[in-house]
Design brief:
Layout lengths: L1 H24 L1 H37 L5 E5 L10 H4 L7 H7 L5 E16 L2 E10 L3 H5 L3 E4 L4 H6 L3 E4 L1 H8 L8 E4 L2 E9 L14 E5 H8 L6 E6 L5 H15 L11 E3 L1 H44 L1 H9 L4 H37 L9 H27 L3 H6 L2
Parallel strand pairs: 3-8, 5-7
Antiparallel strand pairs: 1-9, 1-10, 2-3, 2-6, 2-9, 4-7, 5-8, 6-7
Helix pairs in contact: 1-12, 2-10, 2-12, 2-13, 4-9, 10-12, 10-13, 12-13
Length: 414
């Protein structure tokens, strides 16, 4: 048994060496064949790596909204322009709704959030920023990390003290590298004391970051900028298992205080990060289909190129096949040699395609932060399988044609 296995291992080793010699002797032809396979594999790796990186980044951004947090707003996040007429005149979310949310049995934290645009100024430096009026509990719900100082306290929130917490970009534009804590800035025409700076979050592809925001106590916002603004209410559950129940409790409470009849639609929205992920997954589902189509077409073209080159190779080496058969080579030997030659071209093209497919998006990700890199091993496995299938499928016919040649007719071939 060992001798039998050793015989076939040696036979295919010799076939592989012969295939490599043939590829090396026809460098230009082999290179063009490799190029078609290389492009197909590189396309798969690049597209899948880029989209996998985007998936990770966007999933992380959506997760920052809180997996167990619901956002009560006057319109849904994902309605787009489809139902604009339905949500155009919905009543704003106000203090009545906020007070109702605080009485919910399943609510762990209830945090108001109201915003407006304003110009922030410190000495000669100024920039346009988004001002958020919110609760002292906001960092617990949205997971804001403080770089310098602190977030405002319960007492400052309750009494509406003129204090603020700066996003990283606001801090850099107003103060540069100088100490901001304890300094007073103007937001519009009103002065606020800086008590903290939020850690840099960087650019966002979807929901934005806190870098360009300024956070002030909710009561200070109402006192400074008025109460006639619609707010969002962040309501967190104690754990993710209670989110669905909390959603129903919020809906019942909102319908009750707005005196909606059973047949009337909700005139408010209960948003969550799951809604954004579902919408994003719908979009990427179409992209994955396009990737498979592009990759399949690229490898199909490569496979046709492999078959054409192998048919030419068989024709050119007909006399060599006759000599090998006359010296005792079997059909299996000839079949294995030419099939391995086709597979070798596909595998070599696949290896080069993999190296380029990993290197290109990795280098790009170092310069473009919006395009993060994430190597998908599923894409690597699929590429290996594809190249093997292409090699076998398109190399089998030329190999079979070579194997079935008659030794006498092959030796006569000129």
């Amino acid at each position: 048994m060992r001798a039998f296995i050793a015989y076939w291992i040696n036979a295919y080793y010799e076939a592989f060496r012969s295939a490599m010699r043939s590829l090396w002797s026809q460098k230009v032809r082999s290179g063009l064949t490799l190029l078609s396979i290389l492009i197909g594999v590189m396309t798969i790796i690049i597209l899948v790596s880029v989209i996998s990186g985007l998936n990770q980044k966007i999933a992380g951004e959506f997760a920052s909204l809180g997996t167990n947090v619901l956002y009560v707003s006057h319109r849904p996040w994902t309605s787009g322009g489809r139902d604009w007429h339905k949500w155009h005149n919905t009543p704003p979310i106000g203090m009545r709704e906020l007070n109702a949310m605080k009485t919910l049995s399943l609510a762990d934290k209830v945090v108001p959030s109201v915003r407006k645009g304003a110009k922030a100024k410190y000495k000669q430096n100024n920039m346009d920023a988004t001002i958020y009026g919110t609760s002292w509990k906001y960092p617990d719900v949205r997971k804001l990390d403080i770089e310098f100082g602190r977030f405002f306290s319960f007492g400052e929130d309750k009494k509406g003290r003129p204090v603020c917490v700066l996003g990283w970009e606001v801090f850099k534009n107003l103060f540069g590298n100088s100490e901001p804590i304890g300094k007073w800035i103007k937001i519009g025409t009103i002065s606020f004391e800086v008590v903290g700076v939020i850690k840099k979050q960087g650019q966002s592809l979807t929901i934005g970051t806190a870098d360009g925001n300024i956070y002030i106590p909710f009561n200070a916002f109402l006192h400074s900028y008025g109460k006639r603004r619609s707010m969002s209410i962040l309501v967190s559950a104690q754990n993710s298992d209670q989110v669905d129940e909390l959603r129903e409790e919020i809906r019942y409470s909102m319908r009750s205080i707005r005196k909606l009849k059973p047949w009337q639609d909700d005139n408010f929205a209960i948003n969550s990060q799951d809604m954004l992920m579902d919408e994003y997954n719908k979009i990427t589902g179409v992209l994955w289909g396009a990737i498979l189509a592009i990759a399949g077409l690229s490898l199909l073209v490569g496979g046709i190129g492999v078959m054409n080159i192998m048919l030419i190779t068989v024709t050119e080496r007909t006399r060599e096949i006759g000599v090998r058969k006359a010296l005792g080579a079997t059909r299996t030997h000839i079949l294995g040699q030419f099939l391995l030659e086709a597979l070798s071209q596909c595998w070599l093209g696949g290896i080069i395609g993999f190296i380029l497919g990993v290197s290109i998006p990795y280098i790009i990700s170092k310069f473009v932060q919006q395009l993060p890199f994430a190597l998908s091993w599923n894409a690597v496995i699929v590429s290996i399988l594809f190249t093997t299938i292409v090699g076998v499928s398109f190399g089998m016919y030329p190999a079979y044609k070579a194997a079935k040649l008659s030794p006498v007719e092959a030796l006569r071939y000129e």
